[in-house]
Amino acid sequence: MTTASPPLPPPEETVLATLNEDGSRRWLRPKLAKGPMWERRRVVAWVLIAMFTITPFLRWGGKPLFQFDVAHRRFTFFATTFHADETLALALVIVASFLSIFLITALAGRAWCGWACPQTVYMEFLYRPIERLFEGRHYTTNGRVPLPAWRRIGKFAVFGLISFHLANTFLAWFVGTDTLIEWSRQSPFEHPMPFLIVGGVTVLMLIDFGFFREQMCTLACPYGRLQSVLLDRRSLIVGYDTQRGEPRGKKRKGADEPALGDCVDCGLCVAVCPTGIDIRDGLQMECIHCTQCSDACDHVMDKIGRETGLIRYGSQAGFDAEGKSGARPRLVLYPAMILGMLIVLGFVLARRQSADLEFLRTLGTPYEVLGDGDVSGLVHYKVTNRTDEPRSFTLRMVTPGRLLSPEGPLEVGSQGSGDARVFVVLDPERFEGGRAVAEFELIEDGEVIAKQQHKVLGPLYGQD
Q: pTM surpassing 0.85?
């Protein structure tokens, strides 16, 4: 006879702010605390939303300002197009961008999360206000008042329209606005893959902003978990001044109660938090530094006649009154690394050619010995045009010899590439170990555009 296991004891403390004690999802409906920081964040948010929407339409010198053409493996930054084979330049841009985020984190904590991250910007300044409008008392009472079906349907219908618009804007960053407008006038059956991409992104955005929400920041995004190594005790964070606020307790306006701190334990800092945490528990991975708790607390301090700033921007060392410390090496290391990468990037761009010549692997019979003893080798070459105009190229061999049956001139479209094959005839004495080094030039209108050496395969002359 088996005995039933005793029930598990209730948890002693909250594991996640989005979980109830029974393990079910706790839906967060944070209150809105309007204050100076919220006003500034709102301005930044709408500027960023406008930039996201308008930037794909911006042109500079006839080129998109930014475009990430993955299908053709072309990436445009500030009207400068990089191809996928320009790995050094692309790597420098990407690594410098990440180091910039590291520097911002060391200086201003998670300012990216609270002020500029698309997840926060769209959730708190677009989707959440629409939700408050449709849900009404259901939202303000934290779900205790039932939500009529028509309000729920209306909310998700608007969510769907917004998500569809954002998905189309997102696609414009990859295919360009001209292509997107052309596709929008055609039947989805004429371009099924882009239509499926827009549909898929729309559904993902609807799931993210309609259901997953703050869990994207607290569970999925790795940035919060990196803050333990990106922050130090002098980094700017949103924190609670425990020395001033503790011990907590209720107090009346104007009352002189020296035994109590300034915190009245009203709980508003928790009620307005979009991730549901209590900022008074110290620095936490879930905190996105949105400053909603700061605005809410300042409003309470004003009402009771106390000094504002109980919850404010500061450093952990400052809150603990540690005083000044020495230099922070990361504030020197990060800018030095970024500057070094930008210098190298500038050097790479300065040496960047308008066209590249590359030799590819040859398939089939690599060479043939002619009747006069000369060796004819097959050469396969590729030309990449890095300009916005179609161009015509001719391959010329500098090494003594001749070219047979050249496929030229080679026509290459704007920001495109083309390849051709030619037979190279060389003296057999030039071959050593089955290879002969030959030098080639890429010619356009009589001007040398690029030079490149290539090893032509041939017989094993010169070996014992």
A: no
